[in-house]
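Per reviewer request, we include the raw input and output of the structure prediction for the construct analysed in the revised manuscript.
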Amino acid sequence: MSFGEPIALRMEAELERGADPATSAEARFHTAAEEQFLERLRRGEAAAFNRLVEERHGDVYALLYRLTEDPEEARDLTQETFLQAFRHLANFRGDADLRTWLYRIAVNQARNRWRWWKRRRRDRTVSLDAPAREGSDAPLSAALEGEPGADPEQQTLSRERERALHAALKSLSRPYREVVVLRDIEGLSYEEVAVALDLNVGTVKSRLSRGRNELRRRLEGSL
């Protein structure tokens, strides 16, 4: 399977997927429960915030690891993300869902750290082999992995493909890496990516197209 196939399949699925106009009673109940949870967060309830951290910590860490390719950096930025979220929860209006809001804070923290490192011109060693978080959304490379029970040669080839993908993703410039990670790995909609990055949807689509093309170019001959 070529690297472009998972992306093409995602785009086809988007065109085929239709919106269901009917809202079920279960969905209405979920919405009401979510609103109650948001109110508890805005009031500063410690139990509600602890629940938010427990439910979203892994997602935020996975995003930050994919943006930084550094486990220690990602852990540090995850803590900073939730600290900033706690400070600003009272101002959360609900224009986006909580995950998108947290991702926006996380991306901003990663950008700030990137600028900090750039100012100091510090070189760092980046790990490409850090284990993925259990239960995390499957990355693009999941489509390149061998089947369960594959022989050792196939598994070795899959690991090499995984390393090549991580290296290519790491080599993308920050604006392209952000949109590729949020859209193709985290699975956010174009609109959610736009909110998380404070961009318009047209810019998101343009950067995503260029980022995907750059990934394909850098992965030629590797997969």
